[in-house]
Amino acid sequence: MYINGKACISHQNSVEEDFFIEQAALSSNPLAKAQEPLYKNYISSTLLRRMSHGVKMGATAATISLQKAGAETVDAVITGTGLGCFEDTDVFLRELITNQEQTLSPTAFIQSTHNTIAGQIALIFKCHGYNLTYTQQGHSFENALFDAHLFLKENEQAKVLVGGVDEITDSYGQLFEAEEAFKKNKVALGEGAVFFVLSNTKTVNTKAKVEGISMFLYSKEIEWQKKITDFLKETNTTISEIDVILSGNYKKEDVLNEELEKIAPLANIVSFKKWCGEYFTASSFALWLAALIIEQQKIPQQIKTVSVKKVLVVNQYQYSECSFILISAC
Amino acid sequence: MVFVTGIGIVSAIGKNANETLSSLKELRTGIGAIKQLHTVHKSTMVAGEVKLSNEELTCFLKTKSYDRTTLLSLMAAQEALQQANIKTNSGHKTGFVSASSVGGMCRSEKEYQNFIEGKPYTRFIDTHYTGVHAQEVAKHFGITDYVTTISTACSSSANAIMLGARLIKNKILDRVVVGGADALCCFTLNGFNSLMILDKEWCKPFDHNRRGLNLGEGAAYLVLESEEVVMQENKKTLAVISGYGNANDAYHQTASSPQGVGATRAMQQALVSAKLQPKDIRYINAHGTGTANNDLSEATAIKNVFGESIPKFSSTKSYTGHTLAAAASIEAVVSILSMKEKSIFPNLNCIEPMQETNLFPETTLQHNQELTHVLSNSFGFGGNCSSLIFSKK
């Protein structure tokens, strides 16, 4: 699957990709809220009025990635969201409780369903094709990416828009106990929206392709070495070919990076959650960053230039959902 | 080919497939006064509730205490796996593809008042997420090769069935349990009420004087297996998933287009993928929610696809209520039961045809029907439209 367009809204100024690679900064607040672009540059104000910030982020990232791919529309829209539209869920729940189930406005309820983002994208770009939303916590984006892979096998000429979106609110931060988690682990709770336009055909702008994806659940007995080697074998790659590993380690004293250093002593191991925070679809941020590193041949906050052909994303969400995504230069 | 080798269902009309069949044959609706859910609307609204409390479900399943969505999911998945005579760790690559729109909301909404009032509450966010039930149920049955949850509002479990069939066709899995679960909760009841699309009496799908839908709850799952596994294990099969279509209406966040664009596309795609002609379809289990908008849009789409030769059709939501993300899998089980029984279960409460289309559903029980191919429709918010075709093996 070739990445023909990509866009990322995150805690960083990632819409401007050059700026991000030069200026990426640590998140220093328990809630790593997104730096949101000027939405009215991308979405009509009539639509914007009803949208929660998660839907705005999603629709905007989708719009930019289509622009970058030079595509007017796509054949399929596949999204992943672990939390769904929590902002509107919270609004409707509060109103329901406060008004004791009487005289409620339907707006927040309408916008609260998990497929709101994919539905709005279909509406904006008149995509009557395949449309799906996955909600499997820390595997939501991976499920969407895997479906894109299946869809492109079944429809070889197709263009697929695939993305991961999660929004945070102050309520969610409290419910997740983000402050306590930040004190303990030094990683903030994050949010963001990342979209890719994928197809089997390379365009003039194509710099990277997705080689493989694998999902599994965490257990203490995981043999990372075997897991990674088996995965790479499926994509005809050896560990020595991996130039960069983007690691989704979470706790400060995490063992994941130590393991990775042992397995791939020659690779640059870079933890990515210090930039985007921890969230269900943070792996979509990592895939965007992997593609950016290949494109720019630069790693954020590292002065030395590198030659990067292959990047492996190793993610774990809260020691539950784990995944590998391999991408390479093309 | 992708075979169905097991079915499991729990809804307002029964806690298993046998009870469901009896209710359908006896034209007995499960929609009535609200007894399980704590809501101020108890005395003024009706719903299709599962007639067991959480305690009774937990006791029946001999399990630890889960939220209601997970309990319903577990119950239906267990029946499906038992019928398919599945032993886990059989060496076959096995998946669980579920669907839900509310997930753990049925528990979250009870704790939320304390949370917003700053009073102590039990941490509920970890069970709030839509995919938690799938992870728990998959773990319960030792299913690890592929586990996911789809949430496309009221078409969710149609997409779960479709994904399961695609995973088998693409040889990613050998067998997969597919379906969906949703518990009735105040969040959805009040949401649909605020949209003013709930009928306070029994819903009347496809009737000229229809006034809205009744909500329901439940879960249903199918066990899908590859041809290789079926041959190898000499398995009894119930049906074949022969076609599927997924399209987006791209018209409005909640309303369906008057031309039924998405629905038409979904049905047409399902026919193409099944390599069938419209005339091959013997029965349509319609989405038929009972709202003014859906039934007219769906009837228009059916006319677009089938022209003047409209197959017999009915909406069985008049028995179960609209079970949201579980609706498509519940209706898939009903469709398979129809094929097996050679019967069309009638649409209840429909008296007067819709003037605009003059389409009229079956209103009496039809016997001796050779239902070789059955189409089932499911449409949802966000423009998500899906159609499935079940065929005799």
What is the secondary structure topology, with strand pairs?
The complex is a heterodimer of chains A (330) and B (393).
Chain A lengths: L1 E8 L7 H7 L7 E2 L12 H6 L2 H17 L6 E5 L5 H13 L8 H5 L4 H10 L4 E5 L5 H15 L4 E8 L3 H7 L1 H8 L3 E2 L1 E8 L8 E10 L6 H11 L9 E4 L8 H8 L4 E4 L1 H4 L5 H15 L13 E8 L3 E9 L1
Parallel strand pairs in A: 2-6, 3-4, 3-5, 9-10, 9-11
Antiparallel strand pairs in A: 1-7, 1-8, 5-7, 8-12, 11-12
Helix pairs in contact in A: 3-6
Chain B lengths: L1 E9 L6 H9 L6 E2 L12 E2 L6 H8 L6 H16 L10 E6 L5 H12 L8 H4 L3 H9 L5 E5 L5 H14 L5 E8 L3 H9 L23 E9 H6 L6 E10 L12 H14 L8 E3 L6 H15 L5 E3 L2 H4 L6 H15 L31 E7 L4 E8 L2
Parallel strand pairs in B: 4-5, 4-6, 9-10, 9-11
Antiparallel strand pairs in B: 1-7, 1-8, 2-3, 6-7, 8-12, 11-12
Written as H for each helix and E for each strand, in order along the chain, the element string of chain B is EHEEHHEHHHEHEHEHEHEHEHHEE
User: What proportion of the residues of chain A form beta strands (DSSP E)?
Assistant: 15-25%
Percent helix of chain A, as a range, is 25-40%
Q: Give the count of helical stretches of chain B.
A: 13
Order of helices and strands of chain A: EHEHHEHHHEHEHHEEEHEHEHHEE
Which descriptor suits the 3D outline of chain A?
Answer: globular
Number of domains of chain A: 2
CATH class (first level) name of the largest domain in chain B: Alpha Beta
- List low-pLDDT spans of chain B: none
Question: How many beta-strand elements of chain A?
Answer: 12
Radius of gyration of chain B: 19 Å
Q: What is the third-level CATH name, the topology of the largest domain in chain A? A: Peroxisomal Thiolase, Chain A, domain 1
Strand order of the largest sheet of chain A: 4-3-5-7-1-8-12-11-9-10
Mean pLDDT of chain B: 97
* Protein structure class of chain A: alpha/beta
Q: Into which percentage range does the β-strand content of chain B fall? A: 15-25%
Overall average pLDDT of chain A: 95
Report on the biggest sheet of chain A.
10 strands, mixed
> What's the CATH H-level homologous superfamily of the largest domain in chain A?
Thiolase/Chalcone synthase
The CATH superfamily name of the largest domain in chain B is Thiolase/Chalcone synthase
